[in-house]
């Protein structure tokens, strides 16, 4: 583990006076997710078991155990999107970015997640990249859409 | 002096208030007689962005303002003094106080929301802000406690425990350290009154917490606010900083020998943390699993010390009670519960938003006088109170008084104030399924009845709404619901099956219809609905044919179309696309 990261985490621990949830929130804010290495270091510093740290992380919805990209792609897999070909879109993104669901590209640019319903069924199929909503997405459009963020 | 306010709660900002505020600020920059101020949410979201102009004897409310309207407001109103009529709520309503939705309310908690600048402590102080604190610092602690007790203020977070008794219990504890906590983990879907208070008037909560600290003898307070409310967090931070600068918070407050400090803690997305003991665990940095009660938090709370926990809305009442006395507070509400309650009115109703009415106001008054009746001229079917922990109120009980006991008697609860109105097109087993789905997701997993039981109940409801259930299933569902209610560890589990039990009580026929006749009278449950084309009114435009994702629509003679029921996946696209209402659900 890099020394810079260590000092940063130590600072976060100090600042949050050893309150685990606040520390985790701040580490996630800094690194966007909670990596195993960082958590291992944290558990040693706080002198609590790694199991306890993970117990807290998995209890709360807010925490990510996997890296998140600069651009978060959300694909709606609601019923309408599904029948209108959302699974093809998932497939195409797997192919284009070489990532599966809940994964992040190596350069840290894109991560992929699916959603139960984004609530805009009349625009199906829909994908969301950060705050931008793309309606009526076709398989062949994806390359061009992703290009905008590269 | 002309004061221009822009509604900048979360809802106002989402509707585009920020550029409006910036533009107004820019235009009026060098004009000393004009003041542009950001305010919180007034509680009618559909009117956002709201711009109000306060002149000497006139208050004007402009609604749904766009950035392009600003020039007109400045030219016509500010410079010439003429009202811009097309931006009013209606020609007859000059300002929001005359809007029937607001006019018929009695605002104590929301009094300053939408009027006071939440980021400026001076603005709050001009409206009697921190006067209550100044008053009590000279008084005997027991006397203040007596006032709170006599006020008959009850917990607004759900359970309705008398606030005075809670304070008294904390007061008499002989503990070296005591904590004052504020529960701002508003998690019920549909309820947002706490957010409105924190975003619109955060000082009212801070002032009340300082008062509570003084009374029970505490030096430290925590506000536990959910991370999903970034604006509320931001404004709380500003408010705490400003209060410290004014010597209203921190060491030796206002030259007395009383010191008090407030810290913020952020929730990380867990519904159960709204339960007070789970909240305490979470503040301590642990998994938010509830503790066994008793001992109650006033005996053994945060770090096992005496802890007083109240909800945001409860605290927001305190300064008014101190200033106006318990008798004044008793004159509002019912005999057992004084004061008002804020409801978040939503669903199939004409006007949605925050409604603050005296406790004991009937449901009928809220729906028809304030909410303007059911939308689309439909009939009222039921109202859900208390979110996923509450139950439904059927039409036959529409005259029920919205009070803790009255609601409990008919199988629901006051809860934190979510009030969802449902019309005749709502399927009650489906609604019960929706709420159970929420509890299944949010159950913390500590006790088996809640963790496993709610999942099983959800599966039975799923079977019912798909028309695959048998009559034994209904009996099993009822037994299971009662079992979960009686055996769960905390309030979340104990109330999780209320939506099932109350819909079974008042709408049993619908369950039986789903099971025996495989029929959903509200035509909501997809598996039990058939889409057909009405040949009389169909003009053969082909929109349905073109939009069907699975090619289930065939062309038959005379340019007419037909749906192949074997292929149809019941997505409802044809139904929503048909402009001639020729697609029918049966």
What top-tier CATH class of the largest domain in chain A fits best?
Alpha Beta
CATH topology of the largest domain in chain B: Rossmann fold
Estimated structural class of chain B = alpha/beta
CATH superfamily of the largest domain in chain A: Glutaredoxin
Determine the fraction of residues in helical runs of chain A and give it as a percent range. 40-55%
Query: What is the number of independent domains of chain B?
Result: 5
Gyration radius from CA atoms of chain A, angstroms: 18 Å
- What is the helix/strand order of chain A? HHHHEHHEEEH
Oligomer: heterodimer
Whole-number average pLDDT of chain B? 94
Low-confidence stretches of chain B: none
Task: Give the count of structural domains of chain A.
Answer: 2
Largest interface: A-B, 20 and 21 residues
Q: How does CATH name the architecture of the largest domain in chain B? A: 3-Layer(aba) Sandwich
Give the N-terminus to C-terminus distance of chain B in angstroms. Answer: 62 Å
Care to describe what's here?
- The complex is a heterodimer of chains A (150) and B (586).
- Chain A is α+β, with helices and mostly antiparallel strands and 150 residues long.
- Chain A has two domains: 3-59, no CATH class; 71-147, Glutaredoxin, CATH 3.40.30.
- Chain A has seven helices and four strands, in the order H-H-H-H-E-H-H-E-E-E-H.
- In chain A, helix 1 (3-15) packs across helix 2 (20-31) and helix 3 (36-46) packs across helix 4.
- The two termini of chain A are 29 Å apart.
- The model of chain A has no long low-confidence stretch (mean pLDDT 88).
- Chain B has five domains: 2-98, Glutaredoxin; 121-330, Rossmann fold (3-Layer(aba) Sandwich), CATH 3.40.50; 340-423, Roll (Ubiquitin-like (UB roll)); 428-516, de novo design (two linked rop proteins); 530-585, Alpha-Beta Plaits, CATH 3.30.70.
- Chain B is built from 23 helices and 17 strands.
- A five-stranded mixed β-sheet of chain B has the order 10-9-13-11-12.
- In chain B, strand 11 (380-385) and strand 12 (392-394) form a beta hairpin.
- Chain B is globular and about 90 Å long.
- The model of chain B has no long low-confidence stretch (mean pLDDT 94).
- Chain A binds chain B through residues 18-25, 55-56, 59-63, 79-80, 83-84, 122, and chain B through 227, 265-270, 282, 284-289, 444, 549-550, 569, 571, 573, 576.
């Amino acid at each position: 583990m890099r020394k810079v990261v260590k000092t940063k985490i130590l600072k976060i621990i100090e600042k949050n006076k050893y309150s685990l949830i606040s520390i985790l929130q701040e580490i996630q804010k800094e690194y966007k997710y909670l990596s195993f290495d960082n958590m291992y270091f944290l558990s040693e510093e706080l002198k609590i078991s790694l199991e306890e740290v993970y117990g807290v992380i998995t209890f709360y919805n807010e925490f990510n155990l996997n890296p998140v990209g600069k651009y978060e792609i959300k694909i709606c897999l609601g019923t309408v999107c599904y029948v209108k070909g959302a699974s093809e879109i998932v497939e195409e993104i797997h192919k284009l970015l070489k990532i599966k669901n809940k994964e992040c590209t190596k350069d840290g640019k894109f991560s992929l997640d699916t959603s139960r319903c984004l609530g805009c069924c009349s625009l199906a199929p829909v994908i969301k990249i950060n705050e931008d909503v793309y309606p009526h997405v076709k398989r062949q459009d994806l390359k061009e859409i992703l290009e905008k963020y590269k | 002096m002309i004061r221009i306010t822009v509604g900048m709660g979360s809802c106002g900002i989402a509707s585009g208030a920020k550029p409006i505020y910036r533009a107004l600020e820019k235009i009026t920059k060098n004009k000393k007689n004009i003041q542009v101020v950001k305010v919180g949410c007034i509680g009618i979201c559909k009117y956002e962005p709201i711009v109000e102009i306060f002149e000497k004897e006139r208050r004007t409310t402009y609604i749904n303002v766009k950035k392009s309207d600003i020039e007109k407001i400045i030219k016509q109103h500010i410079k010439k003094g003429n009202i811009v009529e097309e931006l009013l709520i209606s020609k007859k309503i000059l300002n929001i106080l005359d809007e029937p939705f607001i006019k018929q309310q009695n605002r104590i908690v929301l009094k300053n929301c939408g009027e006071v600048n939440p980021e400026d402590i001076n603005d709050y102080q001009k409206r009697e802000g921190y006067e209550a604190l100044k008053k009590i610092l000279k008084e005997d602690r027991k006397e203040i406690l007596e006032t709170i007790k006599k006020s008959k203020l009850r917990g607004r977070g759900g359970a309705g425990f008398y606030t005075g008794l809670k304070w008294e219990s904390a007061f008499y504890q002989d503990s070296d350290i005591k904590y004052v906590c504020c529960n701002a983990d508003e998690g019920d879907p549909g309820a947002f009154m706490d957010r409105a208070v924190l975003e619109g008037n955060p000082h009212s909560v801070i002032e009340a917490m300082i008062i509570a600290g003084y009374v029970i003898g505490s030096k430290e307070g925590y506000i536990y606010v959910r991370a999903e409310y970034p604006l509320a967090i931001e404004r709380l931070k500003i408010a705490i900083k400003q209060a410290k600068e004014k010597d209203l918070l921190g060491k030796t407050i206002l030259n007395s020998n009383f010191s008090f400090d407030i810290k913020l803690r952020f929730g990380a997305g867990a519904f159960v943390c709204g339960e007070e003991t789970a909240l305490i665990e979470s503040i301590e940095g642990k998994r938010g699993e509830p503790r066994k009660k008793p001992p109650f938090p006033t005996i053994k709370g945060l770090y096992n010390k005496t802890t007083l926990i109240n909800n945001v809305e409860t605290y927001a009442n305190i300064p008014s009670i101190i200033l106006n006395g318990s008798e004044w507070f008793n004159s509002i509400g019912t005999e057992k519960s004084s004061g008002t309650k804020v409801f978040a009115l939503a669903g199939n109703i004409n006007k949605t938003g925050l409604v603050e009415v005296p406790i004991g106001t009937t449901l009928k008054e809220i729906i028809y006088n304030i909410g303007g009746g059911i939308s689309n001229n439909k009939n009222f079917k039921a109202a859900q109170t208390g979110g996923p922990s509450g139950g439904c109120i059927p039409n036959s009980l529409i005259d029920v008084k919205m009070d803790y006991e009255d609601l409990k008697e008919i199988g629901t609860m006051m809860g934190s104030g979510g009030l969802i109105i449902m019309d005749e097109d709502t399927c009650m087993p489906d609604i019960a399924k929706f709420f159970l789905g929420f509890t299944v997701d949010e159950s913390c997993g500590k006790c088996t009845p809640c963790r496993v039981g709610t999942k099983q109940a959800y599966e039975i409801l799923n079977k019912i709404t798909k028309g695959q259930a048998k009559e034994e299933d209904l009996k099993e569902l009822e037994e299971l619901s009662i079992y979960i209610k009686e055996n769960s560890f905390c309030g979340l589990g104990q109330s999780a099956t209320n939506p099932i039990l109350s819909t079974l009580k008042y709408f049993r026929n619908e369950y039986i219809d789903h099971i025996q006749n495989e029929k959903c009278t509200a035509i909501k449950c997809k598996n039990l609905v058939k889409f057909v084309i009405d040949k009389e009114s169909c003009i053969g435009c082909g929109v349905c044919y073109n939009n069907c994702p699975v090619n289930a629509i065939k062309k038959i003679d005379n340019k007419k179309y037909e749906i192949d029921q074997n292929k149809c996946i019941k997505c409802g696209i044809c139904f929503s696309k048909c402009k001639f209402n020729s697609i029918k659900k049966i």
